Amino acid sequence: MSATVPSLPPAQAHALAAAYDAATAKNRLRSLLVAVVVAALALLAAWFAEVKPGALKDIAHFTDYLAKTIPPISAETPRADIVAWYWDLKNWARLLGETILMAYLGTLFGAIGGFVLCFLASANLVRNKAVIFLTRRFLEFCRTVPDVVFALIFVFAFGLGPVPGVLAISIHTAGALGKLFAEVVENIDMKPVEGLTATGATWVQRVRFGVVPQVLSNFASYGLLRFEINVRGAGVLGFVGAGGIGQEFLTAIRNFYYTDVSAILLMIIATVILIDLGTERIRHRLLFQDQRQ
Fold this sequence. Notes:
Distance between the termini: 46 Å
Helix content: over 70%
Number of helices: 11
Largest sheet: none
Strand content: under 5%
Shape: extended
Order of helices and strands: HHHHHHHHHHH
């Protein structure tokens, strides 16, 4: 049996086709206007930022600098050349380990702060608008001020070393994770919370038994992702004396120790790649378990 397609009167079919053409033309016009506005804003931003295509003619300086960082490794003595390239490997490895520990502690302390504050910033858990407003503005302050600025302040207060770096990472991480955690909390299923409320549970008990089990895997995933970011950021904090390998990296750049620059940079890149691969597997496993639940 073959299905029959109902036919429309010519006038009605013509009207529907005209309506479809009009809607399509409207969508195309809207897309064109959006593209024109985006292009105009890009040109305006480039004009104010003085981004000129002619500046790209100096790209050769960039490639020249990169070429100078490549060490001379001969086919006859490759091992000796690599050993000479990483002449201060022990010290660099120690500083790199210090950088990783700074990122770990900063992420841990920041995650704890974000965990505590995110519930106060969630509109579905707190009815006091003043508490929500103040908590959200505080989180915005923590994540808006660059961690380098916090590091400079703490270096002035506590002196050189990894402590200012840990504190700077902690504050910035608390602001960033607090915002992400609050968004997760605001999208939970409120039925368990309502059930606990009906039994007379306190606010803390509702959060502990009705909210935390739903969001814990997402919180852990975001925390691991932030740790990856903080490892990269901790390397930069050393530029202002906040510990880690950044200070040694900056010294190599300022003194034009080209091969030292590439050696330290490759160590940082390799470390970040390994951490990314490890945390990515953990995050995927956490998300998979959360989807199965």
